[in-house]
Amino acid sequence: MATKREQRNQALWGLGMVAPTIIGLMVLNIIPIFQTIKLSFFKSGDFGKSDIFIGLENYRRLMTDPQVWQATWNTIKYTLLVVPITVMLAMLLAVLLNTKLKGKHVYRTILFLPMVAAPAAVTMVWRWLYNTDFGLINHVLGRFGIGPVNWIENPSIALYAIAAIGIWSTVGYSMILILAGLQEIPNDFYEAAIIDGASPFKQFFNITLPLVSPTLFFVVVTSIIQSMQVFDVIYMMEDIKSPAYDKTVSLVYLFYNHSFKYSDKGYGSTVVILLLGLILLLTVIQMNVQKRWVHYR
After folding, report:
1. Cβ contacts of residue 169 below 8 Å, gap of 6+?
2. Which of 35, 107, 150, 287 is most deeply packed, by most CB within 10 A?
């Protein structure tokens, strides 16, 4: 049995091992959150002077700002477009690549490549693909007699075009996570199901889906959080003077504009608090709902 000194040494070693992570979380995450909350009660001073305390004025302004609510809807709509399609495609691809498919390691690498590419570079490539006059997509559509489509500046379709980039960029990462979960399922379950005469369809819904549900839940939660924070692809695709700006601007993009373009960091912080509240609300709902469909072994 370990003595008190040994227990104390083990505790100190444990604290030493986790200390870098704890310090990093405090400095990079926890402290900035409280600073942002504090800043939301202030108005940035003119010419770089000290901030002015204005109480709840920024929150009152937030509640009556139509652009904020439009950006909120744009963010939610983008998430609704990206997350379900990404998860379904990732699940389908993971199941296919978990079989005895020739060259599956090459396919996994190709599908994962967009995740490691720089977002700015990816967006620039897609801007050329979406170009109205010289883009490859419109060139292909022209072969079928379909006129050029203004993918970037048409308010009706711009967000859908941006969502397509989001799906293409993240499906490979989600696929790898789900694939790792699939490979943890013992083959004994499938062998027993085959002996009992279960079809592949029944095997998927009665074995694969329940046993991979914890991984699927993690993918859904992280995908929603990531989609709610979308910024770079919209920033690179849509200029503030674009006709589609109002229909595509996200909450993070709005925060960037108010904080750095308009030098109103107090109001920008208030926008971020709104986004943080939405993400927390969605995460709490998912944590409660997951008890109905996630099966832990």
Report:
1. 114, 115, 117, 119, 122, 233
2. 150
